[in-house]
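Backbone-to-sequence.
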């Protein structure tokens, strides 16, 4: 029995954490067991890689190194946690996954579609999200809403031009996989976004 693999994607400050937390509370209240994870992270090794990736001390890290580190953290998470949970029939929800690598490193860092596709295949094998919730909000609007970027986060503190490339990368990958992506207008208030997210997840996944 294979479970449902749900991922949440979007630029910085679009409200992913809020919506993932709402889904967690909803599933707990309705008695639907689920595993909630974040990328990079979710295992001891992956969390250590996360520290390296986000630390401002590593500002000289190039795009290829960045992409390979994300993939290393993902490989550990998949092998140790995600694959076994899906085999048991669990609902697995992950805050970011391979589409982040495409948007941030493929598009914004300029590594390109082919490089990221090959890297993702090598890392993930046949594990692909059943549904990806993309919270669609332009980074200028998102940063304005959250009061600016977190200057202690190496990626979040990149230029607005970088984040605009990330956004365009997300739009491109969503258009390539319309059967997998659920695109939600994240300019609405949190309640409005949640109502749309849960309605779509009920329709497209094993969430009840």
């Amino acid at each position: 029995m294979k479970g449902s693999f749900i991922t949440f994607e979007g630029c910085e400050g679009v409200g992913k954490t809020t919506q993932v937390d709402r889904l967690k509370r909803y599933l707990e209240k309705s008695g639907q067991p689920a595993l909630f994870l974040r990328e990079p992270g979710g295992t001891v090794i992956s969390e250590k890689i996360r520290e390296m990736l986000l630390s401002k001390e590593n500002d000289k890290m190039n795009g290829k190194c960045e992409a390979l580190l994300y993939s290393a953290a993902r490989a550990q998470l998949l092998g140790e946690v995600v694959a076994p949970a899906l085999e048991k029939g669990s609902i697995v929800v992950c805050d970011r996954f391979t589409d982040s690598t495409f948007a941030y490193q493929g598009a914004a860092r300029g590594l390109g579609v082919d490089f990221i596709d090959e890297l993702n295949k090598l890392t993930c094998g046949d594990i692909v999200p059943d549904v990806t919730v993309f919270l669609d909000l332009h980074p200028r609007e998102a940063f304005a809403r959250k009061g600016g970027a977190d200057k202690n986060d190496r990626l979040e503190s990149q230029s607005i031009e970088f984040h605009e490339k990330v956004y365009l990368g997300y739009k491109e990958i969503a258009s390539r996989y319309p059967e997998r992506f659920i695109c939600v207008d994240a300019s609405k208030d949190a309640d409005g976004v949640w109502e749309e997210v849960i309605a779509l997840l009920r329709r497209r996944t094993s969430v009840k």
